[in-house]
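Technical note accompanying the year-one report. For the benefit of new consortium partners, we illustrate the data format agreed upon in the data management plan: each record pairs a sequence with a structure-token string. No post-processing was applied to the example shown here.
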Amino acid sequence: MIRTGTAVWNGSGKEGNGHLSTQSTVLNKTQYSFNSRFADGIGTNPEELIAAAHAGCFTMKLSFVLGAAGFTPETLETKCELEFRDGAVTKSHLIV
């Protein structure tokens, strides 16, 4: 299986802006910028998308594991707190 995502960036790192799109078009030219990554700007950022993906993968797998043990969860909700330092993921904390 291959899934794709696309990032387009225009301009300098701090003053520029860009957009992110996914194969499914759930993200379709969704805005991101320096401010949406490092301040409180409007738009998304790669870091929150990684956190959402980690939470989503974990929660679905947990549902499968519970099902195999004979339990059917009504609702599972997972929050992922992702920490980056110097351009690397240093911590991913899941709260179910």
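Partners are asked to follow this layout when depositing records. The beta strands are 5-10, 17-22, 30-33, 79-85, 88-95.
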